[in-house]
């Protein structure tokens, strides 16, 4: 348990993530996967009306989980990913209802919409993208863990 009473987060494979983040082939592969994902999501035509309320995890009552592939890509395409302070309650990249790191945002941010019509396609799309992310972990020899976004950002900040 950590000092807040939550279970300890698994350790990120930081050295392997740095290696992947500096590999153009890796960055291209994840970028292509995200482009495909964004196209699938756009085909569903979801709507966002809450202006970033879902990014305030504590208020919204949910968490965002990520993988090392997503974090390595985030680090590769986002200026200073570890520079922002993190809290347990909100994404530090959400400002005034807008995401300030849209290009690098993880799959969960891309897939989740509070639009009730999205509830039918979100779970299967999430499972499909996780399977593809696991394939990228294998392809680029990057150990797989699944952990909370805020905790992951804290580990990145400490690296």
Helix content: 40-55%
| Morphology | globular
The stretches of 5 or more residues where confidence is low (pLDDT under 50) are none
β-strand amount: 5-15%
Number of domains: 1
Count of runs of 4 or more consecutive helical residues: 7
Mean pLDDT value? 85
Report what the structure shows.
The chain has one domain. Helices cover 48% and strands 5% of the residues. The chain contains seven helices and four strands, in the order αααβαββααβα. The strands form two sheets. The protein has a two-stranded antiparallel sheet with strand order 1-4. A two-stranded antiparallel sheet has the order 2-3. Strand 2 and strand 3 form a beta hairpin. Helix 1 (14-21) packs across helix 4 (68-77), helix 2 (24-44) packs across helix 4 (68-77) and helix 2 (24-44) packs antiparallel against helix 6. The two termini are 21 Å apart. The model has no long low-confidence stretch (mean pLDDT 85).
